[in-house]
Amino acid sequence: MAERVGVYVCHCGSNIAGKVDVEEVAKWAGEHIDGVVVARDYKFMCSDLGQKIVEDDIKKEGLTRVVVAACSPHLHEKTFRRACANGGLNPYLLEMTNIREHCSWVHKDPAQATIKAKALVSAAAERVKYQEPLEPMFVDVNPTTLVVGGGIAGLQATLELADAGYPVVLVERLPSIGGHMAQFDKTFPTLDCSACILTPKMSEVGQHENVRLVTYAELEEVSGSVGNFKVKIRQKARKVDYDLCTGCGVCIEKCPRKVIDNEFEAGMGTRKAIYMPFPQAVPRVPVLDTESCIWFERQRCGACQKLCPTDAIKFDQEDEIIELNVGNIILATGWKPFDCTKMPQYGYGRLANVYTSMEFERLCNAAGPTNGKIVLRDGQTVPRSVAIVHCVGSRDLNHNAYCSSVCCMASLKMAHLVMEKTGAEVHSFYIDMRTNQKDYEEFYQRLLQEGVKFVRGKVSEVTDAARAPHEAGKTIVQCEDTLTGRQQRYPVDMVILMGALEPQADAREMGLKCGISCSMAGFYTERHPKLDPVATMTDGIFVAGACQGPKDIPASVVQGAAAAARVQGMITKGKVMIEPVVAKIDEEHCSGCRICNNMCPYNAIEFDATRGVSHVITALCKGCGTCVSACPANVISGAHFSNRQIFAEIKGALWDALGAEETPVSAEMSAP
Amino acid sequence: MSDDTFEPKIVGFMCNWCSYRAADLAGTARIAHAPNIRIIRVMCSGRVDPTFVLKALSLGADGVMIAGCHPGECHYIEQNYKAMRRFHMLRHTLRAMGVEDARVQLVWASAAEGQQLAEAIDRLVADVKALGPLGWSRNWAENGARLQALEDIINEHNEAMEVPR
């Protein structure tokens, strides 16, 4: 039976119609493409009325195939599949073609854009005739969720899910959960103590009956798909028995080896070789750093082992692989601070009194190495003047083009703390002040009132080379004040560099494990930047917090909760739909050559030795189609992407090419 | 053979996960590029059967772009490597048939690389413009005997292989 095709061309307001002559495309399709019985254009196909047109036409005109020429199928394929289903047509008999992103938005010449739109419509119309009705498959969703990263975003997601009654596994790379927020002193704009609002959440996670906490561990491998992921977690050897340890801290007290803590204290303080990063750490189980431990250096000491009241110290403990099944994964892997030594003109690492923002946070923190006293590197001098340099490594094409979004507010907070604690004069060097959240601008106004001196300009150099007597012994900040247009030198005692928020060094690697991609900057790409900010292109993998882009605490919390809500939706539904795009082998005609067997990365093709043929295990097949194109006998068919469909699409796309119209080589020729 | 009015027809086979999305991104970012390319979506660059390329050329395409995820970043683990292997074999065959290398290009573009993909499309169009039309399809239109010979070969081949039609 000849198929009855309906073609619908969307104006998308003026997004498409502004460039492509949509009426002409629809009219042309109705006249020139075989089988097209209805061809319409409409202002907004995705609107309820637009969908209604499709539904009505299916019923009234007896359409057996539908083509919608509009935006990307990644945006609205689901919408129109639903419309087809409502009209009583199998949803897989729809084909969407992209005349917005791939045509009207990227081509300048309206005539050429219209020709291309015709080609795309023609390709879709030719292809759709060969599409087959398919039935989606459903799989059960495992209610357990894996959260990767125990910073504030991960903690929020964990608590939301655990409180709702669902099991959560929280994996954290470091010995304790808490993330960067645990390092901060105060939070803007309310100036409440970071630890005071964070630690209750940490202990709640640590004690929650629905949470399995796996710290000092890394996600090693992810396989499976939405609803049923299999994950491998490497539990690094703590050298301390997790179950025996009571967290009394005798081992830490007695350990004779002190080393600089580059992790939690950002190099400002020390810790022992066996340590908990900070007093409120969760879990309260120390970690032994084998690199600095005397026992691992020369088999001496062993004080911790001898003195441990529960014999929990295990020098021979090895890494362990934990295998788990989970239904969904939330990545909340956070950020890392910019390495300020990459900007040698700012003198970090060379000039003693240049600090990174992280170092300053520890310096200022009441629980930090100086008990919250703001002093210079000599450990006693209180600075009388402080310079804060914004945008170090952000909004800088040499490093990161993006704005790190939190530094303006963090610098205001630091300026306030410096003035409050030391009474020092503060200069803040900014490019633009960005204070665009609730109560942020008010905080900025408050700091202006408090007398911070804001200088608009990008600092060109920080140096200790004095040019005048009053600069001697000072750290000098050179900057063009762009409001007065003059180069100025500011001799100060202390300089704080507001380094950029960068993606974790292994963000890309982690993304690959989970099958999600990163932006050029290295932050995870969300499914839609506005409408789907925590889902990713891979079903069942969600992102939250600064791993998706620089953000402050409130925004990270919002995303953590949002990701948890999305996961809860999946769990409550109980089943997820899996696209029926899979390969199938015509076993009757399979020659048993086994070429396809090695093509499949999922081992979804099995060889039946007794019958001498291969067959596809549908549950394992992900539908890439590589085996389809590899089969020398053409007996593997790829659902929804068959040779026949693609050949027809090629033919349609070349409707205006010489020879394509009176194509003597028929589209079906080499299709099975 | 090239002249100023020649607008080559290019067929692009792009994988669903990276390069098709890169083209989408080029759209949302309004990165203008040559309108000569017509993109066909496949799930993976590994799905691109060399006969797709030959089919496109025989139906009047002057050039073909195959685009996939970067090596090591394939959504299906490693299938883009298979696309790469096939591409090189196909190129070998095409050379033997006198088709210039620049007409069929393999490109890697991640979902974030709208700009790079747009540039690659412009490059391919410029390359093919410089080479002029391929005109394979004219063979069939102008010389019926050639077409008959071709169909005979295919039929003989199919009979020999007992490939189900």
Outline of the structure:
The complex is a heterodimer of chains A (672) and B (165). Chain A is 27% helix and 23% strand. With 672 residues, chain A is an alpha/beta fold.
Task: List the defining traits of the structure above.
heterodimer; A: 672 residues; alpha/beta; Rossmann fold; FAD/NAD(P)-binding domain; 5-stranded parallel β-sheet; B: 165 residues; 4-stranded parallel β-sheet; 48% helix
Question: Which helices and strands occur, and which strands form pairs?
Answer:
The complex is a heterodimer of chains A (672) and B (165).
Chain A (H helix, E strand, L loop, with lengths): L4 E6 L11 H11 L3 E7 L5 H14 L3 E6 L2 H14 L7 E5 L1 H5 L5 H19 L8 E4 L4 E4 L3 H12 L4 E4 L14 E2 L4 E2 H14 L3 E4 L2 E9 L2 E8 L14 H5 L3 E4 L7 E4 L1 E2 L11 E2 L5 H5 L4 H5 L12 E7 L1 E4 L3 E3 L16 E3 H8 L20 E8 L14 H16 L2 E6 L9 H11 L2 E4 L2 E5 L11 E7 L4 E7 L1 E6 L1 E3 L3 H8 L26 E3 L9 H21 L1 E4 L4 E3 L19 E4 L4 E4 L9 H5 L5 E3 L4 H11 L19
Parallel strand pairs in A: 1-2, 1-3, 3-4, 6-7, 6-18, 7-10, 18-29, 20-27, 21-22, 21-27, 22-23
Antiparallel strand pairs in A: 5-30, 8-9, 11-12, 12-17, 13-14, 15-16, 19-28, 24-25, 25-26, 31-34, 32-33
Chain B lengths: L9 E6 L3 H10 L8 E6 L7 H9 L4 E6 L10 H18 L7 E5 L5 H18 L4 H7 L1 H18 L4
Parallel strand pairs in B: 1-2, 1-3, 3-4
Describe this structure as you would to a colleague:
The complex is a heterodimer of chains A (672) and B (165). By secondary structure, chain A is of the alpha/beta class. Chain A folds into 4 domains: 5-134, Lumazine/riboflavin synthase (Rossmann fold), CATH 3.40.50; 144-222 and 325-334 and 504-564, FAD/NAD(P)-binding domain, CATH 3.50.50.60; 344-502, 3-Layer(bba) Sandwich (FAD/NAD(P)-binding domain), CATH 3.50.50; 583-639, Alpha-Beta Plaits (2-Layer Sandwich), CATH 3.30.70.20. Chain A has a 5-stranded parallel β-sheet with strand order 10-7-6-18-29, covered by helices on one side. In chain A, helix 12 (407-422) links the parallel strand 21 (385-392) and strand 22. In chain A, helix 1 (22-32) packs parallel to helix 5 (110-128), helix 2 packs across helix 3 and helix 6 (152-163) crosses helix 7 (194-207). Chain A is globular, with a radius of gyration of 31 Å. The two termini of chain A are 19 Å apart. Chain B is an alpha/beta fold and 165 residues long. Chain B has one domain (10-159): Rossmann fold. In chain B, 48% of the residues lie in helices and 14% in strands. Chain B has 6 helices and 4 strands; from the N terminus they run βαβαβαβααα. A 4-stranded parallel β-sheet of chain B has the order 2-1-3-4, sandwiched between helices. In chain B, helix 3 links the parallel strand 3 (63-68) and strand 4 (104-108). In chain B, helix 1 packs across helix 4 and helix 5 (136-142) packs across helix 6. The relative contact order of chain B is 0.20. Chains A and B meet through helix 4, helix 5, helix 16 and helix 17 of A and helix 1, strand 2, helix 2, helix 3 and helix 5 of B.
